[in-house]
Amino acid sequence: MRGYVELFNLGKTYDTPKGPSVIVENFNLNMEKGEFIALLGHSGCGKSTVLTMLAGLNSISDGGIVVAGREILGPGPDRGVVFQSPCLLPWMSAFQNVMLGVERVYPSASKAEKHATVEYYMDLMGLGESMHKMPSELSLGMQQRVGLARAFALSPKMLLLDEPFGMLDSLTRMELQEVLGGILEADGKTALMVTHDVDEALYLSDRIVMMTNGPRAKVGMEIHVPFERPRDRQAVLSHPEYYHLREQMIEFLEEQEKLKHQPHAA
User: Fold this and answer.
1) Partner of 77 for a Cys bridge, out of 69, 97, 105, 253, CB 3.0 to 4.6 A?
2) 173 & 245 share domain
């Protein structure tokens, strides 16, 4: 079955002094338009490798990737990327950091149109009163809001999130999960998020893809998340399936952890 986003027989091999090292092998995933998928697995299994190949920031060794009917051959504005670190230019204000991408993607738009786009997404992220502050004047959570605004302002076909809340404290993390979930639901954006957080994956995603250990990591298990949208955290936590799904995920991760320590695991 073809999807809006297709990753077929995807593979990544690095050359090392000891010979080729296969990080990801035969990774297959189809995503529907507007679907939010969380990608989980142990550190080093290749989650971020898959995401950076999808972003066009990492070359593909085997297989291919298609987004909206077009094969991915490199980076492009059709895919917005948000990393764990906000990656803001420190000599530019929050507004200027978001405007930088807008000017490159919409060169023919009027100045007023560009300003309206930047202001809209910064307001949406709760940055209305902090637009013209420098990154050094913003908390890490506010900086990450700028990173999210920058990605959304480009109107990408899909959003790629590499542990976007991994550096934040738990309260800020939960707050930004609410912000991201709300905007994605309103916008209908297709999204893939790498995370280590089981609860974050259950709260935000429509489907969870669990990766096997590397080397030669691939899809090991998929979980369809049944919670209705729009999501309410308390309703999700009290859903009869929540702890069953959570246990399934933890059992998979524990099994992969055991395999790591077996002599034939590789």
Assistant:
1) 105
2) yes
